[in-house]
Structure formats: C-alpha cells, structure tokens
Amino acid sequence: MTDDTNAVSEEELHAYVDGFLSPSDLARIELWLEKNPARAEEVRQWQAQAVELRALFSGYARSDARDRKLLSTSGRSDAQQADTASASRTARGFAARTAGRIAAGLMLFAAGALTGLYAPALLSPGREIQRIETAESLPRQAHSAFLVYASEVRHAVEVDASEQNHLATWLGKRLDHALTIPDLSTLGFSLVGGRLLPVNGKAGAMFMYEDGTGRRLTVLLGRNDDNRETSFRIDASDGVETFYWIDGPLGYAVTGEVPRELLQQVADECYRQFEKTGETKS
After folding, report:
1. 128-281: what fold?
2. What is the mean pLDDT of residues 17-22?
3. Terminal Cα-to-Cα distance of the chain (whole angstroms)
4. Nearest CA to 220 among 146, 158, 156?
5. Where in the chain is the domain with CATH 3.30.200.100?
6. Which pLDDT belongs to residue 75?
7. How many degrees, rounded to 5, is the angle at CA 148 between CA 232 and CA 250?
8. DSSP one-letter string for 124-137
9. Are 243 and 263 in contact (CB under 8 A)?
10. 122 contacts: CB under 8 Å, gap ≥ 6
C-alpha cells in the first residue's frame, strides 16, 4: 500500500474506531496509521472520546427483544426497499462521513438534557442508587479502555516505563492522590507505561503491563468521591475479565484476557501494594 493521504478514507477511519472492519482491513489501516502519525493521533482522540461517551451512557443501556427488528428490512414495503436500493453512492458516502459526528453530537445533547432532568434526584439525600451505578460503571470503562489501548503497538501508553517516577507523580497529581505503581514482576508482568484518561468524567489513570508472551493487562484508577467501599467483584465480557473494587477515594479495576486465577492474583497483588502505599502516606 502507498503512503498517499487518500489511501485510507475518512469512512474507514471511523469504521476502525467503531470496530466494524474485517481483520484484513484492520491490519491494512493499522499499517497506514503507523506511517501517518498525525492522523493516528487524531484517531486515538476519537477512540478516547468513544470510551468516555460509552462510559457516560453505560448506566442507561438497555436491551430489548424488539431491537433486532429495527435493523431488519422484512417489515418494509417493496417500494421502500426499491427507494433504498436506488440511493446514490454520493449520499451513502456523505452519510458515512457524518454519522460519527452526528451520533457524538446527539449523545452530548442527550447528556445535557439528562443532566437537567435528573440532577435534582441525583443531588437528593437518596444517593445510594447513584453510588451503585457509579461503582458498576467502573468495569465497563476498564473493559473499553483495555480494548482500545491493549491492542496498540506503538502508542499504547503516553509515558513509558523508563519514566516511572514521573508517571506516578503526574497521574497522582491529576487524581489528587499519591500513587505508587504496582510491581507485578513476581507474576511475570513488567510495566509498559501508563496514560491519563477519563473515568466517570474526571481524570483517571491507567497502567499497562505485559508478560514475556505479549499478553497485556491494564490497571485502571478513578476517583470515588462517594467514598463507598466494596469487596472484590468480577465482570466478564467476550473473554475479557475485570476484577474491581473501591477503597477510600479511588476505584480500581484490573482487566485482562488471561486465566481468571492469574487475573485474581494480579488484583490481589495490586490491592496489597495500593493498600501499603495508603498506610505509608497516612
């Protein structure tokens, strides 16, 4: 493939962010992004925005048996189907280019509307329901962040392991909480690095680890202003599992595509080291 800037279309980049590409197209576009760092950075920003939007609306996600019918043409008339088939290539291209932007705009509009509608209830004395939803959103955000960043080859993290002290200080300041990055070498995982990312609409942190076979794990940290503690919990989706818990001002989530027993050991070790750091700082 060439380095021509038109070699990959805007539609394909949006499809890449949304996970709608075939394996061959995925590999082709990842190679193109490596050769076009400016566009790669733009795509990473789209991915981060998608993670935040999914996390923002995860508490409102509902499934319905009738949903699939909305995607079917079986209930449409022959005339309607003929009209659809005759739509021009230009119209389809325009729709594909603008769909991502329109969807993002509508979601942001809905976020503002929902805030106005539900703010009185969320600020009322009965905050328990909201605290539970916030806690349960943590594994979904950790899962999304893992899917977005663990597959990255060259830009998985913002700060790599060679600057570990700077990474801990920087992210600790953003979370307003002293951090020590867990050492998982006894379990076969070394630090790749970390990055700043949104968690529940606030500054959060993610550390990434990798073992000798290339398997990766992520450790996500986010603010927990409700100060509601939880025991270890597990969430699983499509082969990716997350152990998560809330302890004092922070929520923690360990995510990976590894055996559950190993992930449990990693979560236990992270908990032990984070707890030790808290005792040292107090």
Report:
1. Phosphorylase Kinase; domain 1 (3.30.200)
2. 81
3. 57
4. 146
5. 128-281
6. 46
7. 35
8. SS--HHHHHHHHHH
9. yes
10. 130
How many CB atoms sit inside 10 A of residue 211's CB? 16
Q: What is the phi/psi pair of residue 39, to 5°?
A: -70, -35
Secondary structure of the chain: what % helix, strand, coil (to 5)?
Answer: 55, 15, 30
List CB contacts of 223: < 8 A, sequence separation 6 or more: 175, 176, 199, 200, 202, 203, 204, 249, 250, 251
Which tokens go with 56? 């923002």
Global pTM value: 0.55
Cα distance between residue 196 and residue 37, in whole Å: 20
Residue indicated by tokens 């990842």 = 30
69 vs 7, more confident: 7
The pLDDT value given to residue 8: 86
User: What is the C-alpha to C-alpha distance for residues 250 and 162, in angstroms, rounded to an integer?
Assistant: 25
Cα gap 46→42, rounded to integer Å:
6
Q: Report the C-alpha gap between 81 and 130 in whole angstroms.
A: 44
Specify the DSSP class assigned to residue 258.
S
CA atoms within 13 A on the CB side of 256: 23
- Residue 214 CA to residue 217 CA, distance in Å, equals 10
Tracing tokens 């905050």 back to the chain, one arrives at: 127
Q: Is residue 274 pLDDT above 50, yes or no?
A: yes
